[in-house]
Write a sequence for this structure.
């Protein structure tokens, strides 16, 4: 349930101004507008599971896409049942949409590559919840090497060779001399990564999939005192989220999906920080940049 | 469509701490929480028509009612199709609700008494829109007369007579003397009334149904310059809303349902005020008390 100061789940991931939406609780389109996200740059929506708090924003978002004149395909990665549910519901409100929705059913029993472009890959992996649920991990592909400007000049490297050198090739001069790649390039920044794990009970099976991501969002629906309730409802406690972050050796942990029973979530953050210090609580409208 | 500072339609009417919801756009439950409305005091929902911007908040609101342990019946007054649409949709998310939804299909061709309790009546009446649409008018019943405390003492009026006298009866003393009601009571405050008209093109047919209401909400989706667009889409311009208010001789007009094309709605308010001066624009979270 939403609280007076906490809306329902949705994360927007910006990769070079292309947007990826993860979950779409009621009110997501209102928040997207509030924070000035460009609807036209959102082509891919990832839905962890078919509970209302993660999906009830879809009809409104899809309606607004249509009113805004969308023509591009919209890709939705979700449990296979969503296609039937949304088609049935939307058919009462639209004779037709002016764009296509392409549904990609999730594999709810094994990890799978869902999407890939030049920059990133997106994999799903099973979580542990009352209904089939997947987490998602977004990983940048290894970046190209930085070619040294001074070396281009010095060896008179032609433009057509530059892509190969950025990809790690050595360079051969006109005289047949081989210049090692290490001499003419610098290491790029490490590729960045982000994982979204909600809703889920504690399960170490996910650790290998989210290993060393820069930013992990992991639900912490309950405080440690309510761990029995967490187990019963297949949710995690704050310390459990932190234990996963520690095992996976991630860079930073954001916890969220707090039960509406907690007015103040500072105690949950403290519980998590005892195990994984670099933890913060998700807040509505929070923006996190994964820095180089 | 919502704008960054304007949510979707929903009005909450408070009659002596019993709540009546009119329309339920996406995010309504979030706004109800934000403004601290008590969910347990809301038993009646009136839906003007089955467009998404007026209905997509229903699944989330109903889910939250269930999570909050609701047992009381929920009455929904709407186009007959809503029952099938909601049952179908919700069946994918709940095995069952712990309360009953009682659907009351609207008569979309003639005015009708929808609901009545000791205090108020609620009537629907047809509006003029692309799909069957009704407005609603809430009228307090005539209030009981104020019985004068000094007269109770003077004539030694027994308690059992007081209700009859408040209802207008004369009083007969033990000696058989008839005391006129006018002598022992004062006039009550006039009964209050409120009407909701959205979405609708300009139609004078509604005037008789909303005659002299204290507060009229009438849509003004478009500015007067866009009146052709208003006609085409069966919406009203600001001046048209004001003309209806004037013809119906209402106390106060609130205009709303503004197209997302208008960043600034001050010009629409000015247009309306030229015809009906006591006009204001609806704002998110606005609270209006219909004063005695």
């Amino acid at each position: 349930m939403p609280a007076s100061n906490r809306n329902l789940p949705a994360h927007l991931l910006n990769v070079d101004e292309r947007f990826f939406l993860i979950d779409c609780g009621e009110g997501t389109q209102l928040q997207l507008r509030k924070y000035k996200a460009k609807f036209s740059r959102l082509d891919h929506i990832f839905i962890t599971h078919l509970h209302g708090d993660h999906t009830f924003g879809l009809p409104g978002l899809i309606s607004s896409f249509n009113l805004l004149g969308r023509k591009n395909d919209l890709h939705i990665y979700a449990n296979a049942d969503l296609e039937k549910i949304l088609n049935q519901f939307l058919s009462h409100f639209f004779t037709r949409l002016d764009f296509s929705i392409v549904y990609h059913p999730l594999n709810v029993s094994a990890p799978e590559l869902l999407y890939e472009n030049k920059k990133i890959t997106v994999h799903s992996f099973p979580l542990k919840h009352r209904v089939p649920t997947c987490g998602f991990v977004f990983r940048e592909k290894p970046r190209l090497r930085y070619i040294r400007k001074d070396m281009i000049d010095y060896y008179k490297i032609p433009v057509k060779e530059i892509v190969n050198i950025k990809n790690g090739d050595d360079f051969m001069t006109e005289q047949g001399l081989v210049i090692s790649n290490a001499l003419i390039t610098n290491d790029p920044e490490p590729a960045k990564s982000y994982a979204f794990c909600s809703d889920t009970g504690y399960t170490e099976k996910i650790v290998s999939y989210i290993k060393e991501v820069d930013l992990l969002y992991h639900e912490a629906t309950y405080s440690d005192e309510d761990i029995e309730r967490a187990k019963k409802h297949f949710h995690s406690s704050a310390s459990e989220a932190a234990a996963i972050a520690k095992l996976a050796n991630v860079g930073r942990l954001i916890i969220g999906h707090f039960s509406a029973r907690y007015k103040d979530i500072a105690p949950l953050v403290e519980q998590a920080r005892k195990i994984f210090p670099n933890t913060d609580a998700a807040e509505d409208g929070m923006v996190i940049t994964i820095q180089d």
User: Anything to note?
Assistant: Residues 125-137+191-283 of chain B form a domain with the Metallo-beta-lactamase; Chain A fold (CATH 3.60.15.10).
